[in-house]
């Protein structure tokens, strides 16, 4: 697999639609975008995006007034298992534009900003399925994974064999992030943005997240 920096240079040289060269410009200083996609399933090859949300973050400010939110009409079937998760029914997306019409607006919104997400590689893989045929390249944006930031603050010094929980709910609980309705693209992007801002602040202050001890601590007082 090519290193991402080399891949970025290759994409910059081979982009087929020159109107998207803005994707390689310098991103605004200290700005990132939290993203989330809701899909018909977890198979990139056969499943489709049904909702996309993106929220800009400037410094430690989450700019909810500067967001992108869209529902898309999928080509694949809306299976019952997925509907139970994201609660979007076939009737909810029937009149929505196909995802190919949604992608250009999303690309112009995110520009060259780094993309923040929870298991962001999956979201980007789903997006690239549409972006590659449209633009001729995959997303060149830097990726920031909140579960990695969380791991660094809580588990990077954990002893071998320590139990590690990188679930969304564990991060939410440790960081005291408000529990919004999950599997709604906007809510998930917003909670992810809050996680990112909090984790970056902890890193800047050199603060770690406490772990529960895995065994009782001997107390000679008997307390």
Question: What is the element layout, followed by pairings?
Answer:
Layout: H1 4-14, E1 31-39, E2 49-58, E3 61-71, H2 80-86, H3 90-93, H4 99-110, E4 115-117, H5 120-135, E5 143-145, H6 146-154, H7 168-175, H8 185-205
Parallel strand pairs: 1-4, 4-5
Antiparallel strand pairs: 1-2, 2-3
Task: Please give a structural write-up.
- The chain is built from eight helices and five strands; from the N terminus they run H-E-E-E-H-H-H-E-H-E-H-H-H.
- The protein is an alpha/beta fold and 223 residues long.
- The chain has a single domain (4-205), classed as 2-Layer Sandwich (Nucleotidyltransferase, domain 5).
- The chain has a five-stranded mixed β-sheet.
- Helix 5 links the parallel strand 4 and strand 5.
- Helix 6 packs parallel to helix 8 (185-205).
- It is globular and about 55 Å long.
- 30% of the residues are buried.
Q: Give the neighbour order of strands across the main sheet.
A: 3-2-1-4-5
**The first-level CATH class name:** Alpha Beta
Q: With helices defined by DSSP (H or I, 4 residues minimum), what is the helix count?
A: 8
Model regions low in confidence, pLDDT < 50 over at least 5 residues? 215-223
Q: Count every beta strand, where a strand is a DSSP E run of 2 or more residues.
A: 5
Proportion of beta-strand residues = 15-25%
> Any idea what the radius of gyration is?
20 Å
Find the CATH superfamily: Ribonuclease H-like superfamily/Ribonuclease H
């Amino acid at each position: 697999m090519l290193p991402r920096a080399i891949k970025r240079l290759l994409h910059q040289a081979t982009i087929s639609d020159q109107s998207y060269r803005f994707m390689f410009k310098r991103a605004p200083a200290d700005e990132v975008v939290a993203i989330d996609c809701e899909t018909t399933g977890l198979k990139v090859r056969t499943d489709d995006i049904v909702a996309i949300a993106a929220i800009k973050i400037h410094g430690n400010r989450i700019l909810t007034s500067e967001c992108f939110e869209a529902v898309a009409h999928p080509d694949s079937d809306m299976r019952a298992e997925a509907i139970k998760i994201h609660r979007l029914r076939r009737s909810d997306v029937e009149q929505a534009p196909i995802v190919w019409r949604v992608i250009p607006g999303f690309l112009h919104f995110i520009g060259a900003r780094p993309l923040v997400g929870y298991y962001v590689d999956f979201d980007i893989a789903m997006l690239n399925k549409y972006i590659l045929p449209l633009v001729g390249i995959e997303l060149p944006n830097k990726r920031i994974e909140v579960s990695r930031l969380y791991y660094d603050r809580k588990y990077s010094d954990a002893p071998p064999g320590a139990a590690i929980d990188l679930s969304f709910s564990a991060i939410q609980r440790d960081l005291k992030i408000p529990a919004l309705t999950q599997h709604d693209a906007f809510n998930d992007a917003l909670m992810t943005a809050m996680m990112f801002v909090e984790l970056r602040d902890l890193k800047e202050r050199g603060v770690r997240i406490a772990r529960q001890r895995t065994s009782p601590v001997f107390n000679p007082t008997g307390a």
